[in-house]
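Design job #97: recover the sequence.
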């Protein structure tokens, strides 16, 4: 069941990216914080794939899970919470005592998965 739910999320994100005119938007997301600190490879358990990768591409955070994914954007009023364009999935980054990101929590329709950032 978790596989079906997560695959639905990935398909939704892919459809959201493929909307007409989306590729014509060349604006770069303006930020006052360093998006590169979120980028990395995260190891998950209980998902149809072992890793989820967050990449910084053209000033945007992109999620790649098993070859599928899309852009995630910072949630207004939050520090380390990002959502897919359609709001179907929420990514919450966790920091250690040194303020470095070490984990990620993926909340997809009430089902929560946790991943650990690889060095």
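Job complete. Output follows.
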């Amino acid at each position: 069941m978790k596989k079906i739910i997560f695959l639905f999320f990935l398909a939704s994100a892919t459809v959201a990216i493929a909307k007409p005119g989306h590729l014509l938007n060349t604006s770069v997301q303006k930020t006052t914080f360093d998006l590169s600190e979120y980028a990395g490879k995260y190891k998950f358990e209980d998902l149809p794939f072992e890793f989820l990768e967050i990449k910084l591409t053209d000033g945007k955070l992109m999620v790649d899970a098993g070859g599928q994914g899309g852009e995630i954007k910072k949630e207004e009023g939050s520090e380390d919470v990002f959502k897919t364009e359609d709001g179907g999935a929420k990514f919450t980054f966790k920091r250690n005592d040194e303020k470095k990101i070490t984990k990620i929590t993926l909340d997809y329709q009430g089902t929560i998965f946790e991943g650990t950032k690889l060095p």
